[in-house]
Amino acid sequence: MSVGAEQDTITIFERSREGRRAFTPPREDVPETAVEDLLPDWARRTDPAALPEVSEPEIVRHYVTISRKNFHLDQGFYPLGSCTMKHNPKLHERVAALPGHARLHPLQEPEHAQGALELMFNLQGALSEIAGLPHVSLQPSAGSHGELAGLLLTRAYHADRGTERTKVLTPDTAHGTNPATVTMAGYEVVKVGTAPDGGVDLDDLREKATEDVACLMLTNPNTLGLFDSNIEEIARIVHEVGATLYYDGANLNAVMGITRPGDMGFDIVHFNLHKTFTQPHGGGGPGAGPIAVSDRIEPFLPVPQVVRTHSVGAQAGRWPVEHRRSAYISGNGTGPVFDLDHDRPKSIGKLRGFQGNFGVFVRSYAYICSLGAEGLREASELAVLNANYLKARLAEPGIAEYLPIAFDRHCMHEFVLSGSGAKDKLGIKTLDIAKRLLDHEVHPPTVYFPLLVDEALMIEPTETEPKERLDHFAEAIRALLEEAAENPEIARTAPHTTPVRRLDEAGAAKKPVVRQPRGPHENPGDPGSAQENPAAASGAL
Amino acid sequence: MLRRTAYARDALGLEAINPGPVVREFAVRVPDLDGFLVRAREAGINPGLPLRGVLGEYEDGLLVAITERRTREQIDALAAVAAREEVPA
Question: Fewer CB within a 10 Å sphere, N or C end of chain A?
């Protein structure tokens, strides 16, 4: 191993040198009381904490080195289907970092957080307009959390009507979180089949839509990237049996400003602000999954709701709010304009601490304000155009015979290919294609989903990719297929240029090693697991 | 931070709810809490979290947090509010 390579793999603890600092504490300006006089013996540690002592340049290099080991959106094309990995404008980071946004305490009383509440209220209004549904809660913190909220609202709605229902319908193309949420909410999952055109099988839906069904969870366009033109009939069937219709907003990037879930007949919608509205995706980091609902679901929304308590010429509690910079106190001086409404007797309760991930709201609101209604529509139109262009490129000879389109229709923002041809004719699987793409500096698409497509590759380019990136992806696919015709082993053993090679993914999931030794002489946190998992033992994790 | 917190608790001169050792925050009873909050905010200070609604038995309770970012001058200004003295501009 070269000296440079060694520097590339050492931990922050190995970079530590006694006495080095990256932080100068503020000048001591209070009496220098001895620590022993402030804290009793039992409250003081006897050994110093084993923290790294590192200068700022070394900290920067450490984290930049780590970032280079990841494939990330700022590095290259990331067509991960149904995840909408669009560019996250850097302007939003500056807006979110403004002191009034970043340094606001989550328990600040509403009268002293009027700006934040106004932003949240306006975001609710914008999302309401986009969804075509009149009421919004920002509380859920992820798409799956929004799904859970939707089913809890559904349960509360039926309970309020004195009925108890036991089943929830999900198409067999549904995102995996849908059936998981159904189970978590205590309902039974009932699968609905897919018609030959890729939409919901209406006959199967009619058969399964019975009086004990609480809800149908649907995304439109669906996970095949196809818009279900039968949506009005689907809504009629579901509503006829008294069930609710739930919209999984993961694919909302296809339809902003073009059509609205509320207009299609949906009762509940969740948004993924970290997909459609440019909050950076994090590995389990802050996200937001707000929900929009119809009038009949509104009484059950979580508490508290962000409301406008004093109308200034418009109906209280509804968007749009006229933009005022200073008049947060009502005209008659009786109180703040925006407030948190806890007095909701039919509410399903609180879904999380505080009011949600506020920084996510700021970034998403900045995005909506930056683009405006026309810009959002254009974003969706470009997302659909990019997807159809890439679909056409991948339908060219030399590719299509190995990766045929699963359902040959115009797609919306994403489309699904089948790797069955490559498996049969070239002896490489979809997983091999995905891994080999990394060597072409492209993140793999979503693979092996949806389940009804053999060897599926689900590709979503998004609107923020230029034509050259789409062409590069198509050429990378062509090149790796041609290469596989000569030597399939290259794809089977890919990737070859990444910091780590192909991993034991099952082992990494089942026996993760989450701690590295602080230095060369300390054993790993879980040496037993490391021995049993070669990937972990090699430091690959 | 430890010293600043100790200094603030002494400087405020309010009854501590828990007299034990503290590191970065402490709870105190504040006579006329609402008036204190108004005066503090007029002085440009968010003095802490009122404990009513959090711990019901402390209607007059206030949780004050001190970090390394709080200067002696700021702590003294809060103490002046507590003492109903004029806060220096």
Answer: N
How far is the C-alpha of A84 from the C-alpha of A462, rounded, in Å? 6
Would A97 be classed as within a structural domain?
A: no
Where a domain ends, among A69, A94, A120? A69
In 3D space, the residue among A150, A196, A191 whose CA is nearest the CA of residue A172 turns out to be A191
Chain A residues within an 8 Å CB radius of B72: 29-30
Query: What SS3 class is residue A535?
Result: helix
Is B7 within 8 Å of A31 when comparing Cβ atoms?
A: yes
Query: For strand A244-248 and strand A213-218, is the pairing parallel, antiparallel, or unpaired?
Result: parallel
Asked if B4's CB is within 8 angstroms of A30's CB, the reply is: yes
Residues of A in contact with B41 (CB under 8 A): 112
The parent domain of residue A530 ranges over: 506-537
Q: Is residue B88 part of a domain?
A: no
Number of Cβ within 10 Å of residue A364's Cβ equals 25
Residue A83 lies in a domain: no
A112 near B CB under 8 A? yes
Name the 3-class secondary structure at A148: helix
What distance in Å separates the CA atoms of residue A146 and residue A276, rounded to the nearest whole number? 15
Q: Which pLDDT tens digit goes with each residue over A331-361? A: 455 567 999 999 999 999 999 988 889 999 9
Overall number of domains in chain B: 1
CB pairs under 8 A between A and B: 35
Residue A456 lies in a domain: no
Identify whether the C-beta of residue A329 lies closer than 8 Å to the C-beta of residue A336.
yes
Q: What is the pLDDT of residues A305-335, one digit of tens each?
A: 999 987 543 444 444 444 333 344 444 555 6
Is A29's CB within 8 Å of B71's CB? yes
- A472: Cβ–Cβ under 8 A, 6 or more apart, which residues? A77, A440, A442
Do A63 and A111 lie in one domain? The reply is: no
Q: Which residue of A has its CA nearest to B53?
A: A107
A531 touches chain B (CB under 8 A): no
**Is residue B34 one of the residues assigned to a domain?**
yes
Q: Identify the band that residue A218 occupies on the pLDDT scale cut at 50, 70 and 90.
A: very high
List CB contacts (< 8 A) between A38 and chain B: 2-3, 6, 21
> Could you tell me the residue range of the domain that residue B62 belongs to?
2-82
How far A106 CA lies from chain B's nearest CA (Å)? Answer: 11
* CATH code assigned at A156: 3.40.640.10
Q: Is A43 an 8 Å CB contact of chain B?
A: yes
Cβ–Cβ below 8 Å for B21 and A43: yes
The enclosing domain of B34 has a CATH number of: 3.90.1150.10
Rounded average pLDDT over A11-23: 91
